[in-house]
Amino acid sequence: MKYIDLKDVTHRELGRALGEVKGISEGSNAKLDYILKFSFEEEIGGCTSIATASNGNFILGHNEDWYLPMSLYIIRAKPKGKPSFISVGYAGQIPGTCASLNESEIAYSANSLDTEINFSGIPKIYLLRSLLEVNSIKEAKSKMSLGNRTIGNSCFIVSAAEKRMVSLEWSPGNYDIIDGEKFLAHANHYLSPKMKKEESNKTCSKSKNNFERAEELLKQLKEPQLEDIKRILQDHEGHPDSICYHPTERAGTLASTIINLGDNAFYVSDGNPCKNEYKKFNL
Ligand SMILES: [Zn+2]
Question: What is the mean pLDDT of residues 201-211?
């Protein structure tokens, strides 16, 4: 019954996303209820996000870590009346869940957070989908006023046009935004002092290691370039809890993404970036 509550909330607030769920169902010949339930699934992974600003250019890097049987897709879309976008998401789910870039020079990446679950809130996957359509950080922030949310999440939002990058953290009933100057790093625990109390469990070792290691490497950079971001996302310090994650055959980094806002380029490595080349996509 809780799932039916979620369906009602989503339909009311974010109708476009529900239309895409129907499209996935029709295209894959899978029952609508199955795809709908899958799109309410919450991440349990341990992703790492980093962002840098240097000489007016912004780069956003992200490793998507989860169980290996899951597969990802990359989509380049031109929705009518909305900004075109490139996005990496999970097969069977609507786009927007991992890392994305849109025509309005907005890039974002998402990291899961461990909070209480509010079964009458808006699922995070639908909120992330709505960010694909924003034209500014202010618009992204306004999505927090759509209503309470199912679970917490962290999002780096970079706006090249506004020359601004922020860390947005939310919980079911609260949120905070922190501006980044030279760099930002995030794993899977709250960084905003205002949000710390929203965390359900003690910060796991992987999240702590990934955040501290990413921050340590970012602090060493003077003028971050694409190759510097690649090197951080390929880092194995602290293995098996490392940024480039391959602890077992069943879990690891499913994809690594780098978005260079300077030329609207989206780079994706299919699997661990230490073993796979980054392929370039343009909007
Ligand atoms: Zn590796």
Answer: 86
